[in-house]
Write a structure and sequence with these properties.
Strand order of the largest sheet: 3-5-4
Order of helices and strands: EEEHHHHHEEHHH
Shape: globular
Strand content: 5-15%
Largest sheet: 3 strands, antiparallel
């Protein structure tokens, strides 16, 4: 959200053109705990081997018409061809979002953040709450592993920059 409005990004994301504003569309973003090298993704992108290209003109017209269903159905990101094979968690997140009611999901840019577009805020909130709960369970598994290695709850809290009570809550959820 560099410009805080709907933008068309071209080139390698450096060319930004304002589009008709999209408002009132619930979007849930999930960033897994991984990092992606954007230069690596662009270096390994094989545009000449792609059998499809996003139809930007159609998507721009859907945005102009505020047609959320057509926007969601047209989501496309060629950078996924590089990032997802090496980071399957992104495909899992996209699947989670659609199974949780998103009418479309996509990796943002070169990744790893993934987003889902929802028809209503209630469904988006339920997906968020479930994702948040699952994230706490995963943190609980990490905490258990660290405890088994001899770490104290206090040390874990300090390293994870969380309070001790939060770390204990994660333990209870696993």
């Amino acid at each position: 959200c560099i410009k805080k409005c709907t933008m068309l990004a071209e080139g390698i994301g450096e060319i930004l053109t304002p589009l008709t504003p999209l408002t009132g569309i619930p979007v849930l973003l999930i960033k897994p705990n991984i990092s992606i090298s954007t230069p690596y993704v662009y270096k390994h992108l094989k545009l000449n081997e792609l059998d499809y290209h996003p139809d930007n003109k159609a998507v721009i017209s859907y945005i102009k018409d505020n047609n959320i269903k057509k926007i969601a159905a047209s989501l496309s990101n060629v950078l996924e061809t590089v990032t997802i094979p090496e980071n399957p968690i992104i495909a899992e997140l996209k699947r989670y979002l659609t199974e949780s009611g998103a009418i479309g999901s996509l990796m943002s840019g070169s990744g790893p953040t993934t987003f889902g577009i929802f028809e209503n805020m209630e469904t988006a909130k339920k997906a968020y709450e479930k994702a948040y709960e699952e994230a706490d369970k995963e943190k609980g598994k990490v905490v258990i592993n660290l405890l088994e290695e001899g770490w104290t709850v206090e040390k874990i809290a300090m390293v994870l920059k969380e309070d001790v009570e939060t770390v204990k809550k994660w333990l209870q959820q696993t």
